[in-house]
Amino acid sequence: MNIVVLYLLLVKATLTSFSGLASLPMVRNDFVVRRGVLTDRQLTTAVAAGRIGPGPLGIYVVSVGYLADGVPGACAGWLAMITPAFLIIPMLRFLGARAEHPRARAVARAVLFAGAGLMVAAAVPLAHDAITNPLSLAIFAASFLLIASARIDSLWVMLGAALVGVVAFQF
Amino acid sequence: MRRPRLADVTALFFRVGVTVFGGGDPTIAILQREFYRRDWLSPEKFAIAYGLARLTPGTNVLAFCAATGWYILGLGGALAAVLAITIPAAVLVVWLTRAYDLTLHYRLAQSIANALLAAAVGTMIGAALLLVRSQLKPGRWLKPIAISSGAFLLAFVVKLTPLQVIAAAAIVGYFWVEK
Q: Which positions ≥6 away from A19 have C-beta within 8 Å?
């Protein structure tokens, strides 16, 4: 598949969606239904590979690019994933001078507090998947306490959790 | 606010890109905590980046990274943030695509990924608590608690989308200006 066409199809999907996996219907329509470049099973593999590793859920478009055209395709997918992110900079520049107004600050604070509520709401379904036994409950509780009460770097929390995962595998 | 070196910003985003599992929300939670701990970003700028990222097409967390990188170090910071957080994850996802069937049966990798996901969830809730607690002051506790609890209920019980919840919070914030 032509690399430019591949990039344009993927960037069309990422530019017209507002969250990581929301581009999936358009990707399926272009790559599976209309052009037959991928099978449904390959698309499922791309989504699963994106969920297994670290990073945003939208990373699956890199996998789609790879399955469509190897490493160059993966690069096109990566570029299509990051392109829309930079649209936020002109939005920030427009807001810049207006951000110090008391009412603008009040709106920003309200959005900040809403963000906290949204984080907890997003954590609940993740917790349902992640906390499946006493060990994962202990890792969850220890991470929560360390992050909420200590000034410890989150890297150590993650590395500690990974180490517990390695030790748990041995038993 | 402290102005860090480009290498420090790149290192933080790189390391979050390889260690945080579970998608955009845990990533934002961890970055928020690290920004505050290092004094790189004010809560107001975090809020603007967070809110606008939801309005930006594509993967919201990448727009959030571009915005916070831009606030911290300008265009160079935005580029460094987005590249550092996506390149390692992109390399890993290509490897995982090749090794998908093998990975499914690779129990050590599963055990580590499960532990990291549990830690990411604990981190998200801990970071949300810190976010609200950092804004509580004598006589100024009602707005943070009311809006964060309301947002949780709107998202979790009423099932509004994050964009709708943020729009509702922005309207409340516009009319509820504290003296």
A: A57, A58, B24, B59, B60
